[in-house]
Design goal:
Number of strands: 3
Shape: globular
Number of helices: 2
Distance between the termini: 23 Å
Oligomer: single chain
Largest sheet: 3 strands, antiparallel
Strand content: 25-35%
Strand order of the largest sheet: 1-2-3
Order of helices and strands: HEEEH
Helix content: 40-55%
Length: 76
C-alpha cells in the first residue's frame, strides 16, 4: 500500500463522506489535509472548524485502510 493510496482513501472517507455528512447534519466544516509516514507511524492531518489537528497511528502497516479510517473516526 503506497502513501498516495492511503491519502486518496483517507481524503475520500474523511472529507467526502464523514465531513460532508457532518456539514449537512451539524454545520461543521472540516477536511482531510495530508498524511505522512514517519518511520513505522502514520500521521494524519486534518482541519476542523479552522483548526489544524493531527493524529499519529503507530505501526500503521498492521492495519487495513478501513481500520485506519475507523481508528481516526473513533478518536477524532
Amino acid at each position: 500500500m503506497t502513501i498516495e493510496t492511503m491519502k486518496s482513501y483517507l481524503k475520500n472517507q474523511i472529507t467526502d463522506i464523514w465531513y460532508y455528512n457532518s456539514k449537512i447534519d451539524y454545520g461543521i466544516e472540516e477536511k482531510f489535509l495530508n498524511a505522512e509516514i514517519i518511520g513505522k507511524d502514520l500521521k494524519i492531518i486534518w482541519n476542523e472548524m479552522g483548526k489544524q489537528l493531527e493524529m499519529v497511528i503507530t505501526y500503521f502497516t498492521e492495519y487495513t485502510l478501513e481500520q485506519l479510517y475507523t481508528i481516526w473516526m473513533e478518536i477524532a
